[in-house]
Amino acid sequence: MMEKPVTSIDTIAKTCIAGRLRLLNRVVTGIYDDALRPFGLKISQGNILILTGKLGVASPVQVCDYLQLDISTLSRNVELMRKNGWLEDVPGEDARSHPFRLTAAGKKLIEKAIPAWEQAQAEARKLLGEEFVSLLNTAAKRVSEANRR
Fold this sequence. Notes:
The chain has helices at 8-15, 17-36, 43-55, 60-67, 71-83, 104-128, 130-148; strands spanning 87-89, 100-102. It is built from seven helices and two strands, in the order αααααββαα.
């Protein structure tokens, strides 16, 4: 039987980095979102809360730069988290900057959600394998450094 020639479509379907990353992102995000759902939280919001807690007072520009988000995505999430009482506005020198910080309720939510996050982290680590997680950390560091230039 004659073997079918490999086409560009076949090559792309088998090797596209973006496609593979999007698949991994959907699967891994699902693991974390499932674990955090009982807290009314998604991992995308959790990342914003954690970064805000780390910064103390966060500006939208800082958060967008660090998490590689567009401003409309951040604004929607921050508004929802303000309504939930997890974030609050901080008066800024420039009224256009709209800085924000964690509230006591936001800090409490993070503390309550940590065991669920740890469970999701362990599940994702088991699924992907330690070698892949190590390579992922290296790739994320490389991308982060390239974006700072």
